[in-house]
Amino acid sequence: MPLLTPLNPPITDWHGRSVWLIGSSTGIGLATAKALHAAGARVVVSARNATLLQQFVDAHPGAQAVVLDATDTTAMKAAAQYVQTQQGLDVVMYCAGYYQAMRATDYALDEMLRHQDINYNGALRMLDVVLPTLLAQQKGHLSFISSVAGFRGLPQSLAYGPTKAALINLAEALYYDLSPHGVGVSIINPGFVETPLVAANEFPMPALISPEQAAQNILKGWRAGHFHIHFPKRFTRVLLLLRLLPYRLYFALVRRGTGL
After folding, report:
1. Closest by alpha carbon to 143, among 175, 115, 165?
2. Crossing angle, helix 211-224 and helix 27-38, to 10 degrees?
3. Residues 196, 27: contact at Cβ < 8 Å?
4. 81-98: pLDDT as tens digits
5. Do 127 and 215 contact (CB within 8 A), yes or no?
6. Burial code of 67-81, b = ≥16 C-beta within 10 A, e = fewer?
7. Intra-chain end-to-end CA distance of the chain, in Å
8. What is the CATH number of domain 18-258?
9. Closest Cα to residue 251, out of 260, 148, 150?
10. What is the reported pLDDT for 177?
């Protein structure tokens, strides 16, 4: 028997279960969509790139695609109505993400706001259109891909990190409200994953893993009923410990470790 009761209803059988992944044309979202389809889920993928979505549908019989820009409120509503009509809502995963390295010496307001609109505001738009259904049916699961960059402030993460910290806080607050209604909530905090998002990084990325490895970790976390899904553990556990340090020591260690 497990030592601790799972925080969420474990998802152990995907056959017939509908999953809508927003931001799933590449990277972790795409790899997770493939893994879910292989496990028997009814998968709907959404992103802006219609060509990549169609390639997924062509290679995965029964999957559906809904082209969607997560920054478009009207489009989000229309997409949600279509998905609910066609498939229903069992699991909704917000994978959309945007990243550009930034420091205060190169501050750009338009880039700051673009990060916020895609990484965080898009998740709010998603909630607006799926929460009524999930609450009415008293079951389902919401999952958000955040990042270890949201744990504490990091160099070059001036635009990206705060949006991921906001997602973590959002998921925590949602858990209080939704768990009594039978709706699970999970926050996913990957370390470095080999995706287009990090392809431009010019610094070493410790414990780099593939999107396929990330997807398997996500399904494992859902299967165990975890609220916090983080990986690879050899990297993320170190960063979780750093969260506990006082600022004087934290700033010194990060400066030494990054050279920034």
Report:
1. 175
2. 60
3. yes
4. 999 998 899 999 999 999
5. no
6. bbbbbeeebbeebbe
7. 46
8. 3.40.50.720
9. 260
10. 98
Find all residues with CB under 8 Å of 10, minimum gap 6, and list them.
222, 223, 224, 225
In the block, residue with structure tokens 């410790």: 206
Tell me the C-alpha distance between 186 and 8, whole Å: 8
Give the whole-angstrom CA distance, residue 85 versus residue 217.
30
Q: Which amino acid is at 218?
A: I
**Interior/surface letters 92-127, b for 16+ CB within 10 angstroms, e for the rest:** bbbbbbbbbbbeeeeeeeebbebbbbbbbbbbebbb
At residue 145, the 3 state secondary structure works out as strand
Question: Domain extents for the chain?
Answer: 18-258
pLDDT along the chain (260 residues), means of 10: 80 96 95 98 97 97 97 97 93 96 96 98 98 97 97 95 98 98 97 73 72 96 98 93 95 88
Residue with tokens 């990054």, as numbered in its chain = 258
Element (H, E) at 258: helix 247-258
